[in-house]
Amino acid sequence: MSDQSKKTFTNIIVTGKSGAGKQPRIDILIDEYHLQQLSTGDIFRKYMKIFQTYNYTGSLESFFDVKKEQFIPNSEIKAKIGTDDPEIILGLKATYFVDHGLFGPDTIINELVYAILKKRDFSNQIFDGYPRTLSQATYLLNTLQKHKSSIDVIVYVETSDERIISRTINRRICPTCKRVYHLTFKPAKNGRCEACDAHVIQRSDDTKEKIQNRLEQFRKKTLPAIKYLEEHGIPIVRIPGHLEHFTKDAVRKSVLTALENIPNNGEGEV
Question: What sign does the CA torsion over 16, 22, 116, 91 have?
Fold first, then answer.
C-alpha cells in the first residue's frame, strides 16, 4: 500500500446507490491522488438555489408534460414565470426533478458536465453521480476519447437499501459549508453546524419516498450504464459502503486496497 500515493489517475468514476456513502471514499481519492470532484448533485443544487432566489411561488407541475416526458418549450416557460434568464429556467427544471425524486434529463446533464470538463482539460476528475444512464455513459466515453482522455477505474460503493434509507432520512446538511450530520450518530449540537454555526437542514430530496424512488431508478438506469462501461474495458472495484468501525483510516484502507491492482494513468484499455 505504500506505493498507492505514487499512483496517478486520469479520471475515476465513483458510483453506487444514492446515500451509499460515496463522499468519504471520494474524499480519500482527492487526498491521495489530487483529483477534483465533479458532482452533478452540486450542479443541480447550484441552479436550484438560483431559482429559489427568484422567489417564484407557483406550482411547477404545469411546466412538465408527463405524457411526452419533457418540459414545455422554453418560450412558454419564459412567459409563465416572467423572465428569460437561462439560469433561472435551468434552475426551475432542476428543482422539478429533485422535488419529484427523479434524475435530470440526459441532455441537460451532459451539457453541464461538458462545460465543466472543458474548463478542466477533460482530466483529473472524480465523477460523482455521473454517468447515471446508458446514454450518459455513452456520451462520456465518446467525449473523453474525442479529447484524448480516459477513465481508469470505476469505484462502486455497495450498501444495502435498508441502510441507505435509515442513514439518509436522518441526514442533516449545513447549507453553508456542506458539513454532514446525522440525528443519531453525529447530531449537530443545538441544531447548528460546529464549523460555521449555521442551522443544519434536511435536504428536500432526503425523504423516504424520494429515496425509494432513487433506489429504483438506480436499478433500472445506472446498473446498465455500469455494465456498458465494464464491457468497454473499464475495470471496476467494489468496496463496502458500511464499515463496522468507521474511521478515516478504515475508509482509506478499503479504498486503496481495492485500487492496488489498477494500472496507472490510463494504462488499461477503455
Answer: positive
> Which cell is 253 given?
484502507
Max Cα–Cα distance, the chain, nearest Å: 60
User: Is residue 1 in a domain?
Assistant: no
CA angle 204, 210, 213 (to 5 degrees): 150
Which range of residues forms the domain containing residue 208? 9-258
Return the CATH number at 129: 3.40.50.300
Indicate the residue type of 268: G
What are the pLDDT digits (tens) for 153-180? 999 999 999 999 988 899 899 999 988 8
* CA distance linking residue 176 with residue 132, whole number of Å: 27
Q: How many domains does the chain have?
A: 1
State pTM to two decimals. Answer: 0.74
